């Protein structure tokens, strides 16, 4: 997978610090502890590309990973963008609201955004904060891949039911794929990777 070639390129605390939107971007969003960093690391086949929300100091930054262009040295085919998780119990209300503003602005305004990967803990399902995010995304018509993480914790039948219920709850999103996923057990890994690759390099 071309995703395996991903390299860290940029950290930014604010949207105006991001590089100009030139090539396709795929962003990763989800609650803290949803399994977002584990998913990025599994998809890129790297152990510590993305850092867990449990890692102090790294969580408030937007991190970008470039997919190098195999033909043109120094150029990138596209970027994976790790957006800070939401819903931390320990973060003050004002900081949460500020982050919600940044996230909303990014999703509405980032012109290079080709797709959104939404991480949802399969046992937790769609939460109020996920719903709020979906309300920002729906009018943009940007396609969404919902990865139902930690799928290894449920038997097969329940995984399928969980995916169907997420599909139903987020039906207002334009193009939505909901996929049971496990970083540890590699469930849905190839399918998710192919889906994301297709956004970057159709
Ligand atoms: P983040 O905060 O969203 O980046 O979440 P992490 O990737 O750090 O994962 C949060 C917790 O869930 C950690 O304890 C992980 O070990 C666990 N976790 C992540 N992915 C999986 C998975 O596929 N299966 C299982 N069983 N646990 C997982």
Question: Could you name the key traits of this structure?
Answer:
single chain; Rossmann fold; 7-stranded mixed β-sheet; 5 helices; about 30% helix; about 25% strand; Probable GTP-binding protein EngB; G_ENGB_dom; GTP binding; P-loop_NTPase
Short description:
Helix content is 31%, strand content 23%. The chain is an alpha/beta fold and 202 residues long.
- Could you list the spans in which at least 5 consecutive residues all have pLDDT below 50? none
Query: Biggest sheet, open or closed, and with what strands and sense?
Result: 7 strands, mixed
Q: Helical percent range?
A: 25-40%
* Distance between the ends: 13 Å
Oligomer designation: single chain
Query: Strand fraction band?
Result: 15-25%
Indicate the CATH topology: Rossmann fold
Unique bound compounds: guanosine-5'-diphosphate
Going by CATH, the architecture would be: 3-Layer(aba) Sandwich
Number of strand elements: 7
Number of domains: 1
At the first level of CATH, what is the class? Answer: Alpha Beta
Shape label: globular
For the residues shown, what is the average pLDDT?
A: 92
The order of strands across the largest sheet is: 1-3-4-2-5-6-7
| Total helical elements | 5
SS content category = alpha/beta
The helix/strand series, from N terminus to C terminus, equals: EEHEEHEHEHEH
Could you tell me the radius of gyration in angstroms?
16 Å
Please name the fourth-level CATH homologous superfamily: P-loop containing nucleotide triphosphate hydrolases
Family: Belongs to the TRAFAC class TrmE-Era-EngA-EngB-Septin-like GTPase superfamily. EngB GTPase family.
Organism: Parapusillimonas granuli
GO molecular function, one term: metal ion binding
Cofactor: Mg(2+)
């Amino acid at each position: 997978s071309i995703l395996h070639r991903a390299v860290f390129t940029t950290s930014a605390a604010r949207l105006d610090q991001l590089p100009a939107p030139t090539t396709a971007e795929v962003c990763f969003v989800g609650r803290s502890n949803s399994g977002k960093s584990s998913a990025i690391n599994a998809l890129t086949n790297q152990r510590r590309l993305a850092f867990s929300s449990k890692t102090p100091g790294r969580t408030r930054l937007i991190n970008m990973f470039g997919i190098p262009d195999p033909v043109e040295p120094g150029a990138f085919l596209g970027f994976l963008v790790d957006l800070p998780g939401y819903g931390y119990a320990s973060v003050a209300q004002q900081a949460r609201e500020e982050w919600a503003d940044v996230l909303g602005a990014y999703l509405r305004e980032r012109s290079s955004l080709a797709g959104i990967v939404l991480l949802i803990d399969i046992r937790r399902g769609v939460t109020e904060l996920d719903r709020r995010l979906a309300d920002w995304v729906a009018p943009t018509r940007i396609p969404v891949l919902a990865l139902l993480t930690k799928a290894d914790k449920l038997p097969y039948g329940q995984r399928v039911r969980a995916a169907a219920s997420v599909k139903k709850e987020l039906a207002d999103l334009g193009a939505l794929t909901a996929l049971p996923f496990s970083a540890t057990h590699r469930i849905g890994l190839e399918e998710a990777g192919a889906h994301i690759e297709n956004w970057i390099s159709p």
